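Example 4.3 (complexes with small molecules)
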Amino acid sequence: MQMPAPPTARYDAVWRRAEPYMRARKNDVHVPLSFDWAQRLLAAHPEADADIVSLAILLHDIGWYSIDMEDIIEKGFGPNMMQSDVRFLHESEGVRLSRPVLEETGWGEDTIRAVAEIIDGHDTRPHPRHLNDRLVRDADKLWRFSVTGVSVACDWFKMTPRQYADRLEHQVAQLETETGRAWAAQELRATRAALMLHVI
Ligand SMILES: [Fe+2]
Ligand SMILES: [Fe+2]
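Answer. The structure with fe (ii) ion bound is encoded below.
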């Protein structure tokens, strides 16, 4: 059973300040959905730091704003090499862009550094460093298992919903927390039913 999400109006100013950076890679859909998963994970893990996890998930992908994927592809780089370079770049750009967002919305240096530490390496660091980091990683992934996540990913990866749902089955075990794994499996079952994947 999912825990109810707590109220989050204290982050509204950060949302508004970061909004211009969210019009890339469907982040204006991914980030709100992952933010909601983060609130549920926080309710299930009260020992985590709610501000750091909430701000880190809100800002973790704003670095994509700085990266013109089409331009990169047009320049003729190999897809795998550039994919990994671009992954590092979206993290470092996220760290760079998040500082003025948090400063201007009144957050202190300790919070800014803790958020930056999570953003920097959220996709590329092999192992998360602590619970806050683990919850951000799970929130980042959980939206994929929803109908919306499958819908967006089918366009990105040129797959059918059935193909992508089958791929997701293998990703459930990759979540960091037991809570995250349980919710991913539950969400994927609901998505399969909603999209009639037992038939098509
Ligand atoms: Fe990312
Ligand atoms: Fe993400």
